[in-house]
Write a structure and sequence with these properties.
Blueprint (H helix, E strand, L loop, with lengths): L5 H11 L4 H7 L4 H8 L8 H11 L3 H4 L6 H6 L7 H12 L4 H4 L6 H5 L1 H16 L3 H19 L6 H21 L3 H18 L2 H17 L3 H19 L6 H20 L3 H18 L12 H14 L3 H8 L9 H17 L3 H14 L1 H6 L1 H14 L5 H10 L4
Length: 411
């Protein structure tokens, strides 16, 4: 089976084990229709967790199903060749040590740093703005100086220390977000943990929840779905009473809704259709009560954000038609460039699932115009490019070949 397609391998291995399509689907928590589409190579299998479940049930290793997926993180990261890898290696080393160790051996009255709190907050705001524009190399560069400056300021024993710690938590959160998007998920975990510690010390409970949200993102990217779900669910439970109040704080609704969206994505990744729908419904209710898009704790939560996630969930569940129908109703222009680009990547994924190659390519090129760095490095975008190259065979369109070159993707 070495030269056969993924679908042909799955079909052959399923028959060898005496399983029907319905039985295989039930064993991996997918439908009979999903298995049929995979075996006909209509529906690509992109998630390592799904490939692993398939391999386990079929009694083979992941590499036997899809050799190029055996080491997905290393392949997608392009170790050493990824844009900004040197910057993020420096940032990783910064997190490995203590960013303000010298301060612990001196006095604790670095008042000059505290007096610069407005400037420090502006720098944190800028780092998040760059993240929302998917300019991750610039995010990493800015954090190399910002985090030590905030750590030093946090050592000052002044009445404004709690405010500094809140900004330090935000800085570590943006570091966690950037590391996650760079596929540096172990470093993202460390950064999210430090964000939680700073938030706890500040006494800002909502910042603690925001830090937990970033932790769940890192767990999700690591495919540690149970841990991701636990982190999100505990935070949802903590906010439930406040979110259900007659006049809840907008910030509470934003975080509560964002966590429900996280639960929906986790469930979809795990093939749990009912739980995914439940999470989306809860998030939609919170967004309707909020009534407008907000960016509390840099979550970009609101009705449009929920619609964009509904597309992502449908794609994850293999419901390409539903994803495209929903996408046609969404005006994502009010969202950040990064969120718009991710929406377009999901649209491209849906078109690829239906083998609509020209439409998928158009969506990817539109995403690239918004945030080139995201399309060139995001594992989902790169997977669509790889699928389109395989669809095209020996004669890919010039635009596709050039995009593959820019993203360093080979068939």
């Amino acid at each position: 089976m070495a030269e056969s397609t993924l679908g042909a391998r799955v079909a052959e291995l399923r028959r060898r084990r005496g399983l029907s399509q319905k039985e295989l689907g039930a064993a991996i928590r997918r439908s009979e229709s999903w298995v049929s589409q995979v075996e006909r190579d209509v529906l690509p299998v992109e998630r390592l967790s799904v490939l692993q479940r398939l391999a386990d049930v079929l009694g083979v290793a992941v590499r036997d199903l899809r050799p190029e997926a055996a080491e997905p993180m290393a392949a997608d990261r392009g170790d050493g060749h990824r844009p900004g890898s040197a910057v993020f290696e420096q940032l990783r080393l910064l997190l490995t040590g203590h960013p303000a160790l010298d301060q612990l051996f001196g006095d604790d009255t670095d008042r000059e740093s505290v007096e610069k709190l407005p400037e420090l907050q502006q720098r944190v705001d800028l780092a998040w703005q760059l993240a929302h524009e998917s300019r991750l190399v610039e995010v990493g560069g800015s954090l190399l100086e910002l985090i030590p400056d905030l750590e030093h300021a946090a050592r000052a024993n002044t009445p404004r220390r709690a405010e500094v710690l809140t900004q330090l938590s935000r800085a570590y959160q943006v570091a966690a977000t950037a590391f996650t998007r760079q596929e540096e998920v172990d470093a993202a975990w460390v950064a999210a943990d430090r964000a939680l510690s700073a938030a706890e010390e500040s006494g800002d409970a909502l910042s603690v929840v925001a830090g937990t949200y970033r932790m769940a993102q890192a767990f999700l990217r690591l495919q540690r779905l149970e841990q991701a779900e636990q982190a999100a669910r505990v935070s949802v439970a903590a906010l439930a009473a406040q979110a259900a109040a007659e006049h809840p704080q907008p910030e509470v609704l934003s975080l509560y809704g964002s966590l429900q969206l996280m639960l929906a994505v986790i469930a979809a990744t795990d093939g749990n259709r009912m739980a995914a729908r439940t999470g989306l419904a809860a998030a939609r209710s919170a967004a309707d009560r909020l009534g407008e898009g907000r960016n509390d704790f840099d979550t970009e939560f609101g009705p449009t954000g929920v619609a964009v996630h509904a597309v992502a969930v449908a794609v994850e569940l293999g419901d390409a038609g539903e994803a495209l129908d929903t996408a046609r109703t969404v005006d994502a222009s009010i969202l950040s460039p990064e969120r718009q680009a991710r929406f377009l990547v999901d649209v491209a994924r849906a078109h690829a699932q239906r083998r609509q190659a020209s439409e998928a390519l158009e969506a990817l090129l539109n995403a690239e115009r918004l945030t080139p760095e995201l399309v060139h490095t995001d594992h989902r975008a790169r997977e669509v490019v790889r699928d389109l190259l395989q669809f095209a065979g020996r004669r890919p369109a010039d635009e596709l070949r050039e995009l593959a070159g820019r993203a360093a993707v080979t068939p």
